[in-house]
Amino acid sequence: PGPSAAARGKGRRRRRKGHGEAPKGPGMAAAAARPPRDPQEFSSNWKALQELLKQKAKSSNESLATCQTDTKKKQPVKAAKSPDVPAINGNVGKAKSTNKMDNGSAKDSPPLAKPESKGVAVNKNLNAAKSSGKICKEKKKNVNVVKESNEIKHKKRKAEEHVEQQPKEADIWFDDVDPKDIEAAIGPEAAKIARRKLGLETGQSKESVEQVLVKENATDGLTRAVAMDCEMVGVGPKGEDSIVARVSIVNQFGKCIYDKYVKPTEKVTDYRTAVSGIRPQNINTGEDFKTVQKEVADILKGRILVGHALRNDLKVLFLDHPQKKIRDTQRYKPFKQRVKSSRPSLKLLCETLLNVQVQTSEHCSIQDAQAAMRLYTLEKKKWEAAVKNKVKKKN
């Protein structure tokens, strides 16, 4: 852009003052009135203005670069002072005069913008970038929240599937397998069920079973009701026939009052150790059968006899007992109805009604007698009332 009218007027006055010694004639006036054609004819102030504009443009570019590189320092870029510009005629143009002209020309030339406006634009761009960065962060947070919720749902679904896949107690029906093998093949839950069924679980130890079956701080003597159980071994060609090998009797509180091994009266062909727990050394040093038979008969005389499948026990002892004084847990109707079985096992009754495990491996005649007595005491009042009513009806 060209200089303003005021600037051109000032330039003319200064040029006239500088050429005061030149002759004033009509030819010279015509030459002065013509527009300048050669570079020497341009005004020194005009050249100073051009130099100042170049320096101004350079300073504005530098300020823009500094604003872009250092966004933290938001200081406006100050225009550098322009050096003194020598004029053609030897006069030196001062910075003040050029600054005045610069101010005047800046008003007339709209393309030259202040550096501060550039800085403001840069700051606006930076603010826009920050706001877009915040939006991106919020989007990332939302995505993370969605991922976390999906992971939680996935874990819940996995947990539900794991619970559904866990074996139930009815599925673990085998009793002759080592729980360690079950744990290796199926898992810890199945092994836990197997240990519980075998009576090997810490919460289902022998002490805990005894606590259920035996009453502490009770008498060790004879009571009105006693429970008996016998272990047997096989005789004959295939070991199908049975003879007594051990007799155990407990009182009403579960305390053992009689326990003896019996010498075999015949040659044993099957000790049935896996079930009976009897070994040759046990019965070879046992009591004579006649002695055991007499001692047991004396204990049972006049007392209520409790047991499970007592007919088999009395048969191997060659003893008889009044039917009205027998309390057989296998033949008690309320027990049959509860476990839904016509001939329930002692193991099933104890598991269902007492929540204890018996006969998990080798049988013990003492524990079986204690279990039968505990079942009897559980229903003693109702059982005895039912027996009395039955006797009254017969009479």
TrEMBL record:
Which keywords does UniProt give here? Exonuclease, Hydrolase, Nuclease, Nucleus
Region feature Disordered, mapped onto this chain: 1-126
Q: Which CDD domains match?
A: REX4_like
The record's subcellular location field reads:
Nucleus
The record's section on InterPro entries has: REX4_DEDDh_dom (IPR037431), REXO1/3/4-like (IPR047021), Ribonucl_H (IPR013520), RNaseH-like_sf (IPR012337), RNaseH_sf (IPR036397)
> Which residue windows are coiled coil?
none
Q: Which Pfam families match?
A: RNase_T
A single GO BP term for this record reads:
rRNA processing
The Low complexity compositionally biased stretches are 23-34
The residues covered by the Exonuclease domain are 224-385
Composition-biased stretches (Polar residues):
60-69
GO molecular function of the protein, one example? 3'-5' exonuclease activity
Naming one, the record's GO cellular component terms include: nucleolus
The Basic residues compositionally biased stretches are 9-18
What family name appears in the similarity comment?
Belongs to the REXO4 family.
Q: Name it.
A: RNA exonuclease 4
Which organism does this sequence originate in? Sapayoa aenigma
Q: Which gene encodes it?
A: Rexo4
